[in-house]
Amino acid sequence: MEGGEKEQLTPATLCSAFLGVLGVGMTVFGALVHWAGILPPEDQGLGMPVLVLGILFYLAHISEALFKSKTSKYLYWIMSETDFQAYVKELQESQPKIKWTIQNYHYEEKRHRDKDGKEHVERKRVNTHSAEAYYDIGGFLDETLSPAQMIAMFHLMYDGEQQDLEANKKKPISRIFLLCEMPLEYHPVDDQEEQRLFDRREAFWRDNTRDTHQDKSTTDLIDCGYKSHVMVILREGTDDSRARPWWMQYWFYAICTIFLMSVPFRCFFFSHCTKIQWEVLKHFSHKNQNSWADDPKHGRANRTDTASKAFRKVKRETPTGNFTEPNVAWDAGKQQLEDVGPPVQVPVGVPSYWKNRDLDKDFDDKINLSADEREKMQKLVDVTYKDKATRDRKSDGMPTRLVVTQVVRMEDSKMWRRFEQKRAELALKGRPKLMAEMPGSGAFKTSPSDSDAAELPSCLKELTVDLNEAYLFHGSCPGGALGIGEDGFDMSRVGTNVGTMFGAGAYMAEASSKSDEYATEDPSGLFAGKFALLLCRTLLGNMFYITESNIPRIEDALATGKFQTVLGDREAAVDTYREFVVFDEAQIYPEYDVEIFSTDPLARPENLLDGNVCAHDEELLGTLCYKKCSLLTDGKAPVRLSAFSCAKSKGFEDFFRGKIGLLVPCEGYDVSGDEAGHGCPHKPGTCLVNEEFSLGKCYKRCDELTDGQFPHRTSANTCCKTKNFLECIEPTESTFSFNYNVGGGDGSLAKSHSPNAKFTELGQ
């Protein structure tokens, strides 16, 4: 399995396994000493103590593996998708509890003398007063992630090139085993509640401190049958928790444990499963939830973890401009609406290319598009890309390209009915002023021209253009995109983080590079390092046109009821982008989830989806990258057999007929590609364009560091005028500086580094 995190063996597990092996050895040795007398008579007294200690070590291993380990918990609590969704729902509805305990104790010393008259002091702990209490929680808000979104993410991750999930579900081998660690995470709703919690806890401990020492603890509990570790079978022919391999049974694990094979079993078990941490997140107060004045202080809207990005508020450009001019929104709006036409005829039913056709039935499918369709989406992303950054871009510099790695079409009957109803309502209002007729920057950039139509997604042709229906991008993270794909946009959460330039709504863009400025990556897990763009069908209707941020004017225009959206044309004003602000979620259908990877501005041009983790002129053999045999032999022996030999094929005869180069390291066929300096083979990956490869690492180019005076690198800290090492010994021919031992990028790439595989292949 790829993409997901794996459960790891803990030090306690390894120590337990070592004790088990040691225990068996000591048990056998002790038995032989005690009963077989393999040691001299004077040493046979060691047999029984060693035997007993060995048995205790072995039992400690058994106890840890079968009752204390994560593996035992996962195998004991195995759930189907249905069971897991019901369990999470139970967790979401259950009351949180916070328990405090205190145990008072002191130490007493007892003195006694042994038979030789020597005095000994025994120090013993004596427990005295103990107490426990619960915090008075009056109301709580649950923000535990619902299962539907995350299960959809895992389904999509492992569907490969299948066209839909139903086809995959017929394959028994396509099941996914998800290990869920489910910690309880409770937070006071605000600062006042946090202070009250602290005061009550300190008062409890103070009132119950009765002795010299105290053990104090705070425990988070929940009012249901809580399980901290569960395993979920995410896909199988039937929704059955027993649908798993025969070896993935608790009894088989117990047998492996008895025969000291628990560690290999756990390694194999973990390699076939994917792990995720699923926080049970609740916010609490001593007051009823209806009386809360503000959103929770630690709510998901303010967090940056993967699960919370579905609720993340998008930071927008702070409004600027002069708001003191006269209010002319009504006059401007009246002028903009002069060309409103008669009612518009709209299509009925789902798009022709959808798999699901019957709207009388409920459906919610996530369909992975084929490689050909993904290429067409890549073309759309490319043609709408503009090499222009605004203040909203968080990274330094523009990416060289947005590479599409996966495209998922979301077919949801509930959201489509809502969208279709809104389209019918707008059609009755009459034809709005069309995009091509408005002032500024022209028609939608996502509208295909006749020459490009065949290379772009066919969905672009099925739009009601007379209602200004268009496909527009929206930047998000992969987790957030799947969340929007489940229920649509949540307008109560948009535009509330900081000021919004054109009002508080959902911001859409026709340029992929603009929406990429708001896209965020998942830092870990299945979609680590990837971003998401939603390609949405958007009903724009009558658009209020404006080129500068002027919130009062926008609010007055919207208050007239004549406009459904706002068009902020910064492209006409300062040559950046046009953005479209929508205020009704029914006007947006999030149809495509486009997973992308932003290439580094300094990355070399490489095909990131060809399966080659080496540079384009290199191939992988074992763990090292070599120059391609096809290039070294002019195509006569394109197959690499070893570091020093190439052949026509991998056949038995070709092994003896292959071409063999010089049997000298870093010479002949045992060399790297041209980008790596035609030197020694290296680890997978490549360097940035402003870096050079030397001694197994990437360094910033000497010609840049020395303004071309010493262009050749001979060591980490030395640059030379020539490639000849002997000539570089001359002081005038080389220059030495610790400042030369640097990389050409930012962050971790600012230091000299190994070749980076993420510059040659996605997912590395």
Automatic annotation (TrEMBL):
Keyword Metal-binding: no
Pfam family name, one: PARP
Transmembrane stretches, start-end: 12-36, 48-67, 250-271
E.C. designation(s): 2.4.2.-
Superkingdom, natural source: Eukaryota
Key words of the record: Glycosyltransferase, Membrane, NAD, Transferase, Transmembrane, Transmembrane helix
InterPro entries registered for this protein in UniProt: ARTD-AVP, Poly(ADP-ribose)pol_cat_dom, Tmem151
Primary localization class, coarse: membrane
Domain PARP catalytic: 350-605
Gene Ontology MF term list: NAD+ poly-ADP-ribosyltransferase activity; NAD+-protein mono-ADP-ribosyltransferase activity
Family annotation (PROSITE patterns): PARP_CATALYTIC
Signal peptide: none
Membrane topology: Multi-pass membrane protein
One cellular-component annotation, GO: nucleus
Compartments where found: Membrane
UniProt family annotation: Belongs to the TMEM151 family.
Name of this protein: Poly [ADP-ribose] polymerase
Organism the protein comes from: Cladocopium goreaui
